[in-house]
Design a protein that fits this description.
Radius of gyration: 15 Å
CATH class: Alpha Beta
CATH superfamily: Aconitase, domain 4
Number of domains: 1
C-alpha cells in the first residue's frame, strides 16, 4: 500500500482533466487520466488499497463524477483530508468511495510513514501516532460495501421483492 500526498484546494480538474469530460464515461476510460496534470505518475502506479492524504477543500470545483468514479475504480481505499468540498463528498458517498476528514492525521504524516486505517475501530495510525475519528454511520458503510448508492438501492429493492 502506498500513500499519495497532495496539498490544499485539489479541484476536480486536477483529479480528472475537464478536457475528457465528454469523451471518457466509463471507469476504464477514466482511470488512465486520473491526476494526469497534477501527478503524472499516479494513474500508472496507484494500487488497490492505496491511500490519498490531502489538505483542505479536496474535490472543489465542478460536480462531475468522473474523479470519484476513477478513484474508486483504481481501488483507492480512502481519501483522508483536512476538509472536502460538499459536492465531492456527496458524490463519494454515492459511488462508495470512503472519505475521512482527519486534519491532525494529515498534519502528522511525513514521507515514508506507514498509514493504517481501521474503519471498524474508528482509528488511523500515522507512523507511531494513532488518531481516532467518529464511527462511520452504518448506512454509509453499507453503501460503500454495496459498491455505491445505485447498487445499495438495487439490493434493498431485491430484498423487498
Amino acid at each position: 500500500m502506498s500513500v499519495w500526498r497532495y496539498g490544499d484546494d485539489i479541484n476536480t480538474d486536477m483529479l480528472f482533466p475537464g478536457k475528457y469530460t465528454y469523451t471518457c464515461s466509463t471507469a476504464e476510460e477514466i482511470k488512465p487520466h486520473l491526476l494526469e496534470d497534477l501527478d503524472p505518475t499516479f494513474a500508472k502506479n496507484v494500487q488497490k488499497d492505496d491511500l490519498i492524504l490531502a489538505g483542505k477543500n479536496f474535490g472543489c470545483g465542478s460536480s462531475r463524477e468522473q474523479p470519484v468514479v476513477g478513484l474508486k475504480a483504481v481501488g483507492v481505499k480512502a481519501v483522508i483530508a483536512k476538509s472536502f468540498a460538499r459536492i465531492f463528498y456527496r458524490s463519494a458517498i454515492n459511488q462508495g468511495l470512503l472519505l475521512l476528514e482527519i486534519p491532525h492525521a494529515v498534519d502528522a504524516y511525513h514521507e515514508g510513514d506507514v498509514v493504517d486505517v481501521d474503519i471498524q475501530k474508528g482509528v488511523i495510525t500515522v507512523g507511531s501516532t494513532t488518531f481516532s475519528f467518529p464511527k462511520i454511520p452504518p448506512e454509509i458503510l453499507a453503501i460503500r460495501d454495496a459498491g455505491g448508492l445505485l447498487n445499495y438501492t438495487r439490493e434493498k429493492i431485491q430484498k423487498r421483492l
